[in-house]
């Protein structure tokens, strides 16, 4: 007697990054790369996509579900499980659990930073508010940089303390440079440095690239060198690489976009503070590391305007 086919569970995405279906059409055979409490990553070709909640905002490579649907999806899912893209149904099929994540009815989104013309007066005001929020309590990056001490040394023109600070200070000097050898030397030190699935050095660069997207602070040799290192070499984790690839193309999480927009537009501390605090509180140090990268970007912009 033939057993009846198991009934598929169809979960509907509430929203998805608009480029994801186009990539999946080229690479429909996928696997589960990694799982977390708030989602999982799917590997498609040489790229990753996140399926999960908006706990950390809209991710630049995210397909988002409700918490209830995510719990149902994660039940029985293991790393390396087979996943396939069904183009006719616009859905991802998880073979082991007979679960389907459908994009039909979901809202496509694209989190990009818009370009701003930042006057020196606005920059001075926003930097002052930014610093006052950062310095309300002691904050240390994932690379063990005390932000208050580092900022003080930068403003006073003091020598950097330790190898990591030296590379960060030199990186700041090279952001508008055409010396690709120097740029590459410092980027090689930063990319992939630190613990976790998204190393702190990568988060610094994502924050920096967000400010660049808004203000154009980085030279072409700088961004070209960074892109070449990220694309051609295995210097960091898969997830860290994915964030950097999206950032190099101007795509960021919604929390980064909102904070960057507030830092480069006319604002006040009551608008800026909640956006920065939301970002600062993300992950073990990821939010702080990203905000530190934004600080690097604004300091580079200040040097450029001076």
UniProtKB/TrEMBL annotation:
Record-linked InterPro entries: AllH-like
Superkingdom of origin organism: Bacteria
Pfam families attached to this UniProt entry: AllH (PF11392)
Name the UniProt record assigns to this protein: DUF2877 domain-containing protein
Naturally occurring in which organism (per UniProt): Sporosarcina jeotgali
